Amino acid sequence: MQSTMMQYPLTLVHVLERAGRYFRNSQIVSRMPDRSLHRCTYADFYRRSRQLASALTKAGLRRGDRVATLMWNHYAHLEAYFGVPVAGGVVHTLNLRLYPEDIAYIANDAADRFLIVDDILLPLLEKFSDGVQFEKVFVVPLTGQPVAAPYHDYEALLAAESGEFAYPEMDENEPAAMCYTSGTTGRPPGVVYSHRSIVLHSMATLVGDSFGIKSTDVLLPVVPMFHVLSWGLPHAAVMVGSKFVMPGPHLDAESLVELCETERVTFATGVPTVWMSVLQLLEQCPNKRNLVPGMRVGIGGSAAPESMIRAFDKFGVTVIHAWGMTETSPIATVSTLKPHLRTLPEDERYAIRARAGYALPWVDMRVVDDEGAVVASDGHAMGEIQVRGPFVTGSYHNKEVDPAKFTADGWLRTGDVATIDSEGYIKICDRTKDLIKSGGEWISSVDLENAIMAHPAVAEASVIAVPHQKWAERPMAFVVLKPQMEVSAKEIEEFIAPRFAKWWLPDEYVFVEAIPRTSTGKFLKRSLREMAAKRKMETAAE
Amino acid sequence: MQSTMMQYPLTLVHVLERAGRYFRNSQIVSRMPDRSLHRCTYADFYRRSRQLASALTKAGLRRGDRVATLMWNHYAHLEAYFGVPVAGGVVHTLNLRLYPEDIAYIANDAADRFLIVDDILLPLLEKFSDGVQFEKVFVVPLTGQPVAAPYHDYEALLAAESGEFAYPEMDENEPAAMCYTSGTTGRPPGVVYSHRSIVLHSMATLVGDSFGIKSTDVLLPVVPMFHVLSWGLPHAAVMVGSKFVMPGPHLDAESLVELCETERVTFATGVPTVWMSVLQLLEQCPNKRNLVPGMRVGIGGSAAPESMIRAFDKFGVTVIHAWGMTETSPIATVSTLKPHLRTLPEDERYAIRARAGYALPWVDMRVVDDEGAVVASDGHAMGEIQVRGPFVTGSYHNKEVDPAKFTADGWLRTGDVATIDSEGYIKICDRTKDLIKSGGEWISSVDLENAIMAHPAVAEASVIAVPHQKWAERPMAFVVLKPQMEVSAKEIEEFIAPRFAKWWLPDEYVFVEAIPRTSTGKFLKRSLREMAAKRKMETAAE
Q1: What is the ipTM metric for this complex?
Q2: pLDDT in tens, A461-504
Q3: How far apart (Å, rounded) are the C-alpha atoms in residues B36 and B144?
Q4: CATH 3.30.300.30 for domain A434-541
Q5: Do B192 and A5 touch (CB under 8 A)?
Q6: Domain definitions of chain A by residue range
Q7: Are A238 and A16 within 8 A, CB to CB?
Q8: Is B371 known to be catalytic?
Q9: How many CB pairs under 8 A join A and B?
Q10: Please, which residues bridge with residue A464 across strands?
């Protein structure tokens, strides 16, 4: 027996056409380099995305060709998100925070054929342009300055097109977009998203128990669009017609809060460090700000400390914790409270909200120990998170499938270590490589960091493993204090001691001005390890 | 270039496993024939669905075999919804409101191999059992009476299984469920849903701008589970873990309102006639009922009059208008207000909410005139709605593709006539066969019905075309008055006249006790046409 259902591909063509049909009045707001606000509608977005598709096709774009972007979050980047894939191309978002030579490596590995670049990023492009061979470079004149040869003017490119465009027939499994992981060691590998994976991911984030995005929402993706498709927020927004507000290059707390206030943002996303700085700003003048009551902030990329979730609640802002990675499109879990957990005492509710949540529809998840056995769902046993699903990568671009990354039965090994409770909520304990193994037992650096960051004088904390003759490894904490605050190592230890077994407590606290970060805002533990090693050598030399 | 994403099928296996993993505490409530409430949890549902899958497999179920159900809405029907497809079978829901010989025809056309039947429906089964050949019949002992040979006891069947079950490997395009259309003429054809179509449809209804179902919702499907998969509500509920309340055979207004009150229902579904009777009950004792504030009711199957939407608002109940058909899984449009329409004057907002809405994600829709041209989106031009998408049928079971049902370019011809406004909201004017063509112009029977039903003395109205020598066809109205109410034809005409061109007004008003209905609660216009013809003959004979 056969199903009688139509064979209809899940592609971005449908999403773009839907937007052009139903959401022509929805607003798109972009912060420009000069801080002014650029405003347009979905009708403009629809027309210009199709103009871009048409222009790229005339420029010779073939099926599957990569079109790189080197851009901040703004209307033209959104056009590239759709205009490239509906023409049969693959939009490849280059991470402008990487070292120029790394960007060049990635552009070459992906064999990017065309590039669309913000005019204000031309100085960055010129740092690595010797190492790459883009056939054509289109410059978005954000500043209004004329575009000089050999570059092509993005606006002129679009202006030459009527907006009429006949989409090529497409299979839903064809590639649509590409991102490289932000690995902190070695050359990052590329992940290639399909039309199907992008569309399914956006639907999974739309449902009420994940991000619950609706047409009435006003979205602010602070996550860069060059970072894992901005968590799929652009696709989710366009699917339902939400007002879409983009911060451009202005990611400081004051600019973000101002944008939230004036554009009436209801849902924003970002990594904890960005929102920590927003929180500090709110705390400086608690009565002066005018955020939309009930505003939600999706936080991921690294763990949001419980103290931060509590602090935002005081400002009427609900933090929704999420977890994922480039390989999972990226949202794989979201921490919303199931109905029967909403009546728990406040502390228990916060403890659950500080976990990473449970899996989105279509994501299969298991937590597996060193021997490959699924760990007990008791909230204590630690293991590696493994996932599979229609928006989880099964390989890397141009690479053999590596057994260190994928299990024999086809699951992605995420490299993140977690516990899982009886309700299925995971709690990220660490990256496998950041776990501290002391005397044969695991210590979670993330748990220690969150406990230390709950101290009112502490702005940031990062804990790493340092080699130890007897215990193999021991924890060392790096601490950044808030301005004008003072606290001793002993005071911090007394503060966190009640929460941990004694052997979990760090052997040393190092007070620093700042903790170095990766290009995506995560703590750069590699660099801390180097600092620790240097410290040890200096101590030995004394 | 290839996408690196995993090939992961969208099947009901994932949905069931997700429920068993994350929603074990969610509640399932079923009204039994004796009016008592049967309570169980998703943990029970998960275990029993797998027991059913295991038992059917041992009973010899092969891939694609049809397992028919003849059941009301309750826990065991929900088990069949999942237990059959995850075992590789196809659940075929028989409509118990059809004539017995029609049920037999449908069971034979589908080649149903097994049957699961409520014990209270055995008298119905016995009316057509001579005409069918089920290999085994499993009886659900809802009343607690023992099950006698030749029937098998459903509970004994499940009790023999441990609940361990190894799912067969499945492709997402394999068939999972089957329904026959409720056509009022000729033998109804069958539609076969796939795992993919069911899962995608449930996701499309979950999003906030359609039904917006969440884990915190308490759902009451008044739509029978033998009618187009109960609009996909069972699948949507299980996907997110909503409490699920089923009315069993008790569909009278008092039973439904009581269930809404005691189980704290937040979202219910049904056809207008059911909710009209609920409304009348609420109006009888406006201060005595205790519905959840903000309760939503999804209404479809036929048009919900604007007057009904307004009346429910007074009780804090939001009617969400939807449109679809067996061929579209069934929800294809939902009428929720886009953000910029929420500030319109009240009358305009109600007018939009009374339309059928705009298309769900993944549904392509166009309105096409007699010549095949897309009509203007002006809210006036009428045409046939045509749709396509991953949960729209492209054919009928065991039938050649009929050009009267499908266009040459692959769209379903729905047979529903609508206008479409500039925002993309459609307004159903009629079935193509119910439209009245008077003097070469179309008159919408639905518009006339809604206008007449807005009169405070009118309970129901149905308008049909009667043959006319000069104008080809003219409208005739059948009217049911509310109890103890009186109104003349002239008064109704004066009431509706301001809304229509004069030539739209019915030539005659016939007051009747009741309007005959189809098995799904729609007005049976065929029967009214027979009444009209008989009337004419009688008049001629006088």
Answers
A1: 0.89
A2: 999 999 988 888 999 999 999 999 999 999 999 999 998 989 89
A3: 12
A4: yes
A5: yes
A6: 9-194, 434-541
A7: yes
A8: no
A9: 197
A10: A476
